[in-house]
Amino acid sequence: MLGVPYTSLHLVGAKRATTGSEAEIVEGLKWLAEAAQRGDAEAARMSAWYYQKRDEAKAFYWWNRAADLGSSEAQWKMVERCRSGLGTRPNETEAFRWCRKLAEGGDVRAMKEVAASYESGRGCTKDYGEAKRWYERAGDGAGVQRMERMLREKSGGGGPGFHVKTPDVRIRGPGSLPGHVR
Questions:
Q1: What is d(CA 24, CA 123) in angstroms, rounded to the nearest whole number?
Q2: CB under 8 Å to 32, separation ≥6 — which residues?
Q3: Which residues contact 138 (CB under 8 A, 6 or more apart)?
């Protein structure tokens, strides 16, 4: 296999992994693995698809490799698998990391997910300011308004339509307060 351009490796590997005898499938997977190790995201993604439903731990490995190589499909698979624990232990922090990587790459759906994570504290520290920034980047006006309201409430600040209700306390004189001694 050495000396063969890796683009050819994944094409030959894919053909052998999807057609032919069991021996050809095994040989095709070797070619895909070689191409993926050389930096071919498509070969890693194809390996992951092959192992999905056959060996979830191997599928996780190949989704992770493809995600590291920049495949957005694989990055979403990593978000899903890290959340669900498919092929690995559930890890919300790792799911958030992959989702944020997608968001930083311009994926609007991921931006909304990152914002929601900051809003709820899922996989990250709760931060309404960060949530607002991500909702703004995603163009989600309702999310921005919700975060502005949450930030006002958190800071005790006012604003139009924002009222802090104070308890109605009436002091009747000495001895009416708890702990007061005459």
A1: 42
A2: 9, 10, 13, 14, 17, 43, 44, 46, 47, 50
A3: 108, 111, 112, 115
Domain segments of the chain as ranges? 1-63, 91-155
H helices within 69-140, ranges in order?
72-84, 92-104, 108-120, 128-138
Residue holding tokens 């005898």? Answer: 21
Residue 164 tokens read as 């802090």
CA angle, 64 as apex, 59 and 68 as ends, to 5°? 150
Closest by alpha carbon to 48, among 29, 31, 25?
29
Q: Which residues contact 35 (CB under 8 A, 6 or more apart)?
A: 6, 7, 9, 10, 13, 43
For residue range 72-113, list pLDDT tens digits in order.
999 999 999 999 999 999 999 999 999 999 999 999 999 999
Up-side HSE of residue 41: CA atoms within 13 Å toward CB? 11
Quick one: CA dihedral 36, 45, 98, 81, positive or negative? negative
User: What are 169's two structure tokens?
Assistant: 């306390």
**In 10 A of CB 43, how many CB atoms?**
28
pTM for the model stands at: 0.72
- Measure the CA–CA gap between 127 and 117, rounded to whole angstroms: 9
Highest mean pLDDT among 5-9, 22-26, 46-50, 119-123: 119-123
Residue identified by tokens 């030959």 is 12
